[in-house]
């Protein structure tokens, strides 16, 4: 009966252990097609104590408690895959780009170890290192997504001529503290899973949102505890930045000006958002200041990337549950008015994937907050 099992598409599981919830997505992959098989979410806090999300992240929770939640969501979602990739919060790891001349692989590994000592802020003996030659990754991304490349070329993107002239290799260096790596390995073991990969969440985020599109894109992920902003160029994350303003801060500010408790403020934020009367806007200075801080930081990072590389961001993609707050997209479009309106958008990681038509509305609604889990499941 197992003779033809090799014909069945393989299934891949992505698990996003965030600071407020665990999200899982199981995709099957056959040729160039990803099919949504299962998805699910479970939160860390109850309605009676919503602010626990602000006071305690998944990294501080006991492994057994996190694993129990993982097992629960896997069971409720009827997941069948046992091999999983998991995400790491940006603030828990470190990444940078270094340059090295071309050299044999064994020599490059030694050179990377030597260079890492200059960039990693903690002793090398306390971290696990990984690296990626960006030129090779860019080529692979473009070959895997011809449609995305053709679309980008229509928008004026061309291969960076500096990559052809330069003899140096750009290498993405990633360092994860061993303590955190062991924690995730232990969680996977307790949950009955085989951990196949750990990734900083910006990488699966960009993979799911861009799907190899090589245009220079800023991806802004507004999470519960913090906001991640990354610049992807050539389909690869080049820089990433994390800062503290977050969805929880927005909800708190909303509650203060609207005189609502946290639960009611969260509801109003999702329904009314920034679509306020002139009088309400006058009283919402704290709320608007947080939104301005997020947009200002996005502008600062895009300008910094242009000053460093000469390459201009031509797309802005919003992610995270807060991205669907009414009025937020319009605020971003107003500040990035030099770009076409459709170049500033809310991302949909399920776009281009195969799923039942009846799920289209709900997947579009939850998509921005499931981007990391989708990207992990797409990792292969």
Task: Kindly describe this structure.
Residues 1-5, 48-56 and 137-165 have low confidence and may be disordered. The chain is built from 15 helices and 13 strands. Strands 3-2-1-4-8 form a five-stranded mixed β-sheet, sandwiched between helices. It has one domain: ATPase, nucleotide binding domain (Nucleotidyltransferase, domain 5, 2-Layer Sandwich). It has helices at 52-55, 63-76, 105-119, 134-144, 146-154, 161-165, 178-190, 202-210, 247-258, 262-271, 278-283, 285-309, 328-335, 360-366, 371-377; strands spanning 10-17, 21-30, 33-43, 83-88, 94-100, 127-133, 169-177, 194-200, 217-222, 227-233, 236-243, 315-319, 344-346. The two termini are 26 Å apart. It is an alpha/beta fold and 380 residues long.
Quick structural overview:
The chain has 380 residues and is α/β, with parallel strands linked by helices. The chain has helices spanning 52-55, 63-76, 105-119, 134-144, 146-154, 161-165, 178-190, 202-210, 247-258, 262-271, 278-283, 285-309, 328-335, 360-366, 371-377; strands spanning 10-17, 21-30, 33-43, 83-88, 94-100, 127-133, 169-177, 194-200, 217-222, 227-233, 236-243, 315-319, 344-346. The chain starts with 9 loop residues before the first strand and ends with a helix.
The average pLDDT score comes to 85
- The spatial strand order of the largest sheet comes to 3-2-1-4-8
CATH topology: Nucleotidyltransferase, domain 5
CATH class: Alpha Beta
Q: What would you report as the Rg, rounded to the nearest angstrom?
A: 21 Å
Q: What percent of residues are in strands?
A: 15-25%
Order of helices and strands: EEEHHEEHEHHHEHEHEEEHHHHEHEHH
Please identify the structural class as seen in this structure: alpha/beta
Helicity level:
40-55%
C-alpha geometry: globular
Give the total of domains: 1
Q: What is the H level of CATH, i.e. the homologous superfamily?
A: ATPase, nucleotide binding domain
> If helices are DSSP runs of H or I spanning 4 or more residues, what is the number of helices?
15
**How many β strands by DSSP?**
13
* N→C terminal distance: 26 Å
In the CATH hierarchy, the architecture is 2-Layer Sandwich
Poorly predicted regions are: 1-5, 48-56, 137-165
